[in-house]
Design a protein that fits this description.
The complex is a heterodimer of chains A (147) and B (91). Chain A has 147 residues and is of the alpha+beta class. Chain A has one helix spanning 2-31, and strands spanning 41-49, 64-65, 71-79, 84-92, 97-105, 111-118, 126-134, 137-146. Chain B is an alpha+beta fold and 91 residues long. Chain B has a domain at 47-91: Membrane-bound Lytic Murein Transglycosylase D, Chain A, CATH 3.10.350. The chains are: A alpha+beta (147), B alpha+beta (91).
Chain lengths: 147, 91
């Protein structure tokens, strides 16, 4: 009988400790301020073309260019961020990096960022790719050709 | 193998992209510039770099920190003028 009472009291003590611990946890959660929102921005589309408008969106979409074209890639983003960096890496079919350029942005909603490249003596014919990175992470890529 | 899996171009001379021109622009605003660090101090009559260093850092020997941060306006560290605005770098 004494043993039974001892076991019950141990169990009760454990239960009380558990309740106290749980309650403490809740209290701590309640007093914590909500996490500060740093914002999230995502790349929703990459458009290729020969020209962009004032909204930085491509007005003349194509993935086939002529050697003397200025080549535009318009990166469409959504979301907000206090400080993000978009990077466009342009590569030729043999893996050569043609050009890399970056643009720092602090979007407050939907936005478009254009990157463009040109070559005064004309683009060599062949296949190219533009890869878009957001804060160093690859997001989308587009292939295009010069004929 | 090229990134597009085309091995036919292997023997061709490498294309020259050294004169490629590029640019970018965005409808998104640019990130705010980081807040400037340190503070400024306007030189008073009778001040010296050592005196300012003593007041700002508690050590007159730190005058060189102030001198280094203001080399564009201080030609001679022994000669500062009242009214000069000096950048005081963080300790």
């Amino acid at each position: 009988m004494f043993r039974f009472a001892q076991r019950v009291s141990v169990l009760m003590a454990g239960l009380v400790l558990t309740l106290v611990a749980t309650n403490c946890g809740k209290k701590a959660d309640q007093t914590l301020p909500p996490p500060a929102s740093t914002g999230v921005v995502t790349v929703t589309a990459v458009e290729m073309g020969r020209a962009v408008g004032g909204d930085k969106r491509v007005t003349d979409k194509t993935d086939e260019f002529k050697p003397n074209d200025v080549i535009y890639a318009s990166v469409v983003t959504s979301g907000t961020s206090a400080n993000s960096t978009l990077k466009a890496r342009w590569t030729f079919q043999d893996g050569q990096v043609v050009e890399e350029s970056e643009q720092a942005i602090a979007p407050t909603g939907d936005a478009a960022t254009e990157f463009h490249i040109s070559k005064p003596d004309g683009w060599p014919a062949g296949k190219y790719r533009v890869e878009v990175f957001l804060d160093g992470s690859p997001t989308q890529a587009k292939d295009f050709t010069v004929k | 193998m090229g990134i597009f899996g085309d091995d036919k171009k292997k023997d061709q001379p490498k294309a020259d992209f050294s004169n490629v021109q590029s640019g970018s622009s965005s409808t998104a605003p640019k990130p705010a510039a980081p807040a400037p660090t340190g503070k400024t101090y306007v030189v008073q009559k009778g001040d010296s770099l050592s005196k300012i260093a003593k007041a700002e850092y508690g050590d007159a020997n730190d005058w060189r920190k102030i001198y280094e941060a203001n080399k564009d306006i201080i030609k001679n560290p022994d000669l500062i003028h009242p009214g000069q605005s000096l950048k005081i770098p963080p300790a």
